[in-house]
Design brief:
Number of helices: 3
CATH class: Alpha Beta
CATH architecture: 3-Layer(aba) Sandwich
CATH topology: GIY-YIG endonuclease
Helix content: 25-40%
Length: 101
């Protein structure tokens, strides 16, 4: 299963972190009201260990407050240099409501 976010094909969306690999990459936190709706990007981040980062994230409360029905996560696995570049690009494109820097 995959979802296109920006110009990238992410794995997911997944309803829980058990489906994530604990690899380097970029993660997107997504929300939608119903199955018929498109997902909205509410946060974008990068990590060396995606599964650990998302499962223990300090912004989980923000994700819950900005969730409008179903909360999901998608991942793009890549090396450190690529993940930094992709995160910056997607944050600029989507201006996610959580984690404003």
């Amino acid at each position: 299963m995959s979802i296109t976010i920006g110009n990238y094909s992410f794995e997911g969306p997944f309803g829980n972190t058990a489906n994530l690999r604990n690899n380097s990459g970029v993660y997107a936190i997504l929300s939608r009201r119903t199955d018929a709706d498109r997902y909205t990007v509410i946060d974008i981040g990068e990590a060396g260990w995606i599964q650990d980062r998302v499962a223990n994230h300090d912004r989980r409360d923000q994700w819950g407050r900005n969730n409008h029905g179903t909360l999901a996560v998608a991942a793009l696995y890549c090396d450190e240099a690529a993940r930094m570049r992709v995160e910056r690009e997607l944050r600029a494109q989507f201006s996610p409501v959580c984690g404003v820097r």
